[in-house]
Amino acid sequence: MDQMPVGARTYRASTGIAVLVVCAALAVFLLGDAVVRGSWAQMLLYAPWVLLVLWLIYAISVVSKVRVDEDGARVQNFLRRTAFGWHRVTELDLRWQLDFTLDDGKKLACWGGPGRIQSPRLGKRSGELKVPPSLQALTEVRTRWENAVERPARAAGEGVDAPIRRSWDWPAIGALVAILSWAAISVAVTR
To answer: Transmembrane region positions (predicted)?
Structure first.
């Protein structure tokens, strides 16, 4: 059996944070322009709409991720979080994205994790066979899963034997509620 990878590893879309940074810079520019050409009050009326778009970009491109360690995985797809120990996984595959089949019969597709497998190709200069990053990620996650299946649980309901837990990303939902409340106040003030 392969050696267990050390430490936790997080997989997410590679361009998500870059897109968020560019959009945040554009948002700062737009709000600064509203202050320069208008006033602070006008900027405060525009701000919730700009922040709502920024929140949507964050929710779509940044927040979805997969975090794996020696005990299990934590998957976040948009605002929905799922955590489980490796003993809860019955199958692991990579089609368009990383897919976990759990022992409760549900399949969990990881929108922010490694993506579609590309075929290995030869390097242009070296002539060596290059393995795509998605296949390397699948191999690493599968190695963690296979090694954990052989390991006994530390205690019932902990570590590799942890139950499937589903929850919501409450901080992101709270931010959305605050932005929508600000937008409602903005509409009320302008009417």
So the answer is: 12-31, 43-63, 170-189
pTM, rounded to two decimals: 0.79
H-assigned helices in 92-166: 133-150
Domain ranges of the chain: 1-191
Cβ neighbors of 96 (< 8 A, separation 6 or more) are 109, 115, 116
Do 135 and 119 touch, CB atoms closer than 8 A?
Answer: no
Interval 111-159: pLDDT, tens = 887 766 555 555 566 667 677 777 788 888 888 988 887 776 666 667 8
Q: How far apart are CA 57 and CA 19, in angstroms?
A: 8
In our burial notation (b when 16+ CB lie closer than 10 A, e otherwise), range 64-74 reads: bbbbbbbbbbb
- Adjacent-strand bridge partners of 134: none
How far apart (Å, rounded) are the C-alpha atoms in residues 3 and 75? 24
Please write the tens of the pLDDT for every residue from 10-41. 988 878 899 999 999 999 999 999 999 999 99
* Number of residues that this document lists for the chain: 191
Q: 110 with 100: CB under 8 angstroms? A: yes
